[in-house]
Design brief:
It is built from 17 helices and 10 strands. With about 400 residues, the chain is α/β, with parallel strands linked by helices. About 30% of the residues are buried. Residues about 120-130 have low confidence and may be disordered.
Length: about 400
């Protein structure tokens, strides 16, 4: 009632719920409040129509309802028997006409909404350079093993989703992980990021064992990921979604945030600038102030990548980023993946689009029924008999797989 996602709204809503029963006990106080409410709503509607922010049709019901409530207050000598009815009508009014609550309505009316950033649609060299500056990643020596998995076993009851899988991912490379549906690719992704605790086997990242660590520990160690199904905060803007990924950069405590100390303000300003730079890096600077749910599906995929990059990863795991994308979106995605690799970030790519995998990966590992059946360069994988059989059930698929890479 007070307002969603705001401290002021929560306090106001709680205050209304607590005080309203008392207010409805006193007919004199209720008359004063009802008249004041009718005046405020009528004046607000008039100003909004004058500014062209709304129409008479849209404000007719709120104005008529509040004026009618004021008339009703003077018509009654006692309000006690009408308390539940009035309270219910007020709830309906807020739910239907003030979906962002009273505070949200006031902010919208006074143009005090969430802070926005100004972004030029033009992709100039300066914009590109600023986006590049937002990427902070190490530069692993090409050829050194960054991630090593040995004897990985992930068992769910009697099902072995991963069965004795070995994997070595070299720093500075794009490593493809492919296989038919149900082959264990996403399970491997969940094991690597700590969502699943492996039944057996070891995981070594940058020379340190991370098997069994919590997802938050793994993320902060330098491993970030995107998800097969887009996992964004839909009602938050693109910029705010990236800010979520920058939480680790804040050093302010709860007191700093509550009192809006200079340190808190400096850190927030720096984070917002960095988040905007990451949006520029993936080509979404123009959409910084748009809610994530309103972005096209392909742009939501890119927003997820920007948020993952906010964690400053040295290893980025992309789980089917091209799924559901159009050809232009896939082309844009491939360019961004290559650019990420050029900044020294190692990429593990799970993907069903063979043209994407064969076009960007240096090494490809193939899973089938939880086991690794092949590994090598893209050209070698295309001609591997086990891979052809796993995908298409026979040697007839050789030409089809090769054709999918073009």
């Amino acid at each position: 009632m007070g307002g969603r996602k705001t401290r002021t709204g929560a306090l106001l809503g709680s205050l209304i719920v607590v005080l309203l029963p008392k207010l409805l006990d006193d007919i004199g106080t209720f008359r004063i409040v009802a008249v004041a409410l009718a005046v405020v709503v009528a004046l607000g509607a008039a100003v909004s129509m004058f500014r062209g922010l709304t129409t008479a049709k849209r404000v007719a019901v709120p104005v008529a309802g509040t004026v009618g409530l004021a008339v009703f207050a003077f018509w009654q000598t006692s309000i006690t028997d009408w308390r539940l009815t009035i309270f219910g009508l007020m709830i309906l009014l807020v739910v239907y006409y003030l979906q962002d609550g009273i505070v949200g309505f006031v902010r919208s009316f006074l143009n005090l909404g969430r802070r926005t950033v100004s972004a030029s649609v033009d992709t100039t060299q300066a914009d590109a350079a600023h986006g590049d500056d937002a990427i902070a990643a190490g530069e692993p020596t090409s050829g050194d093993v960054l991630l090593e998995v040995k004897g990985m076993l992930m068992q769910f009851g009697g099902l072995k989703a991963l069965n004795n899988v070995d994997l070595a991912v070299r720093g500075g490379s794009i490593h493809g992980l492919i296989g038919p549906n149900g082959s264990g690719k996403s399970t491997m992704m969940n094991v690597l990021t700590g969502i699943y605790t492996p039944t057996a086997g070891t995981i070594s990242y940058a020379g340190k064992a991370i098997g069994g660590n919590a997802p938050s520990q793994i993320a902060l160690s330098g491993i970030a990921r995107t998800f097969q199904n887009v996992q964004l905060f839909g009602e938050m803007t693109a910029l705010e979604n990236v800010l979520v990924g920058l939480h680790h950069t804040f050093r302010s405590n709860l007191l700093d945030v509550g009192l809006r100390t200079p340190r808190a303000r400096r850190e927030e300003a720096a984070a917002r600038e960095r988040a905007f730079g990451l949006l520029q890096f993936v080509g979404l600077a123009y959409a910084a102030n748009d809610e994530a749910r309103n972005l096209p599906y392909g742009k939501q995929r890119l927003l997820e990548i920007a948020r993952a990059l906010a964690l400053d990863p040295k290893l980025l795991l992309l789980d089917e980023p091209a799924a559901g994308l159009t050809a232009p979106d896939i082309k844009e995605l491939v360019a961004i993946i290559r650019k990420i690799r050029d900044f020294g970030i190692t990429v593990i790519l799970i993907e069903h689009h063979m043209d994407v995998v064969m076009g960007v990966c240096q090494t490809v590992s193939v899973l089938d029924f939880g086991q690794k059946i092949a590994e090598g360069r893209p050209a070698e994988i295309q001609a591997d008999a086990k891979v052809i059989e796993a995908y298409l059930g026979g040697s007839v698929g050789a030409d089809a797989i090769a054709e999918g890479a073009h």
